Amino acid sequence: MDIPVLDWSRFTSGNDPKGFVADLGKACRETGFFVITGHGIPKALIEDVYKRADQFFALPTSKKAEVAISKNPHNRGWAQQGSEALDETSGLKDRKEAFNVGFDLPADDPTVIAGAPFRGVNVWPDLEGFKDVMLDYYRHALDLGRALHSAIALDLGLPERYFDSHFTEPMATLRVLSYPAAPDGEGIGAGAHTDYGSITLLMTDGVAGLQVKPRGGNWTDVPHIEDAYIVNIGDSLMRWSNDLYVSTPHRVLPPKMARRSIAFFLDPNPNSVIAALPDTGVAKYAPVTAAEYLRSRLDATYTPEPTS
Ligand SMILES: O=C(O)CCC(=O)C(=O)O
Ligand SMILES: [Fe+2]
């Protein structure tokens, strides 16, 4: 099955919003994966994120360990090689390392003080410019993700602004990923999984490895289109849409040469209740808060150390 390529500017320019929404809806219902061109996120900013990520991953282990995600209860910081298995049934650890940036909150935010789930401050390496570039990219990706949800709302027969209140302070995670060259081809870069949130915006450097497995189909390579986002539906949105939309399994094979990607996982606000959207039929799932759902999925992937 082909992965549809959709030009976002058809929606934003006002030239063909209805046509765009129809194509988007079809992609969300059938493949759960599509490619977005015409998104307007500056190439220079994307390049800068790769550059800063490279600088971070090149730091000595002891420096990276200072911002380890294993010590962070809010899913922020560095995930070292061998610390995660996206396919927890495979017995294989992912051959990758990563760094997570969450929704940026000040230390005196009441939800941070209260220790609310996923409401922590970000952790930053001691690298000039790193924080500013990551937060700049985060804002751009969040704007795009929110705007895509207005097109999604229209496809689902909802008011255009329906999702706005669910993404005011969302559990969105910017995750830069680094897969070392694995000429032996052994193991897995990222095990087969579906994403947990609403949608994921993925930028990759073009090194092959990413594959999807559409329902009833076989593993297929995701074609690379320069500067375009690979967007996929996560399990929260599948649940929310009462299975009208599909979240599709994907994986990363161990790449022949070093591979980098920039994922932006857009999950709703922690307290958003994910319950069958209006007019989607008899609810197939019990309502759950977005935070409870995300925690349950992350717990299967890696285990944070106790903080006390
Ligand atoms: O690195 C990639 O291309 C995909 C990574 C991915 O699917 C994930 O981290 O959820
Ligand atoms: Fe994924």
Automatic annotation (TrEMBL):
Keywords: Ethylene biosynthesis, Iron, Metal-binding, Oxidoreductase. Residues 169-268 form the Fe2OG dioxygenase domain. Pathway: Alkene biosynthesis; ethylene biosynthesis via 2-oxoglutarate. PROSITE patterns: FE2OG_OXY. Its cofactor is Fe(2+). One of its GO terms (molecular function) is 2-oxoglutarate oxygenase/decarboxylase (ethylene-forming) activity. It comes from the Bacteria. Its EC number is 1.13.12.19, 1.14.20.7. InterPro entries: DIOX_N, IPNS-like_FE2OG_OXY, IPNS-like_sf, Iron_ascorbate_oxido_reductase, Oxoglu/Fe-dep_dioxygenase_dom. This is 2-oxoglutarate-dependent ethylene/succinate-forming enzyme.
